[in-house]
Amino acid sequence: MAIKNIAVFVEPSRTGAARARYAVELARRHGAHLIGIFAAPPGWNADPTESFVRGTEAIPRLIERHKAAEIAISSAANQSFEAATKRADISFEFRIIREKDVDDAKLHSLYTDLIIVGAPRPGGLPNYWSVETLLLTTGVPFLMLPDAWKAGTIAERVLVAWNASREARRAVSDSLSLLMAAQSVSVVVVDPWADPRHGEEPGADIALYLSRHGVNVDVVQLKSQGQPIEAVILGHALRIDADLIVLGAYSHSRTREFIFGGVTRFLLQDSPLPLLIAH
Asked: What residues contact residue 205 under an 8 Å CB cut-off, 6+ apart?
């Protein structure tokens, strides 16, 4: 799938600015339109003593002060986004949504090819929303950029976690333009012999599919040897110096994943590498 519309959730902070720069470079490479989204926080959660304010003059002044604070932080977010896009040869726009209007976050996400957020949460998202919520309600793939990620290569050495599931296939489809542009793509299959879905040569079919799209791909079959699958995937990603992990989210039922931890939940919470997830 071609990436022609990218949305990035930003905020006026160092990590928000780094996230915007990452999104700008990705948009430039793929000739995509970039949408910066700022979820403006409500101004009524700071000082509990304000609930005791009384009087026909004091109450309007309090309201105006909070409005001014919301305008100021929104302006700061806009300036940060403009700084990231200043010299970029791309089309872009900036949008503000109120943090409490979570349906707006969903609406703005529906019409994009990729959404970029930070990690750990909220990563620019409204406080009441999570990546899992937007992923499952919109179906739009997410690229999570860890706040601790240092500026460097972008989707040049990609690891694809493959388990022959519908979700993994969706992740490959949603990230195909990234995989085609990458210098190298490593398809990783963990303990494939216990799953008949892989066929006689686990990983070979998806590698052939990708190679026909011009992807420089290799297949690695790994044994977990008692380790959690997520640890095996992450360990190999670090060994090959990957700068992006691609995987399908919630290949098992969400109830089962919640009870047993799950590869998806672990990587969402703890991956030190950029992570593209699809469902």
From this structure: 199
In a domain, 152, yes or no: no
Q: Residues 129-171: pLDDT tens digits?
A: 777 777 777 888 999 999 888 878 999 999 999 988 888 999 9
H/E stretch holding 158 reads strand 157-161
Is 121 in the same domain as 165? no
Sign of CA dihedral 106, 110, 111, 115: positive
Do residues 135 and 252 both lie within one domain? no
- The model's pTM is 0.85
* Domain residue limits at 100: 5-146
Give the span between the Cα atoms of 157 and 182, in whole angstroms. 6
Q: Which residues pair with 87 in a beta bridge?
A: none
Q: Quick one: which of 175, 161, 179 has its CA closest to 266?
A: 161
Pairing of strands 157-161, 92-98: unpaired
Residues 137 and 178 in one domain: no
Task: Provide the CATH number for the domain around residue 176.
Answer: 3.40.50.620
What distance in Å separates the CA atoms of residue 106 and residue 236, rounded to the nearest whole number?
34
Mean pLDDT of the chain: 83
Sheet holding 217-222, edge to edge: 92-98, 33-40, 5-9, 114-119, 142-146, 275-278, 244-248, 157-161, 184-190, 217-222
Q: In this predicted model, what pLDDT tens digit does every residue of 217-270 receive, in sequence order? A: 999 999 998 898 889 999 999 999 999 999 987 655 544 343 334 777 778 777
Rg (CA), the chain: 21
Long-range own/partner contacts, residues 258-261 (CB < 8 A, 24 or more apart): 261/228
Distance of alpha carbon 94 from alpha carbon 20, whole angstroms: 11
Q: Which of 127, 146, 165 is the last residue of a domain?
A: 146
Is the pLDDT assigned to residue 25 strictly greater than 50? yes
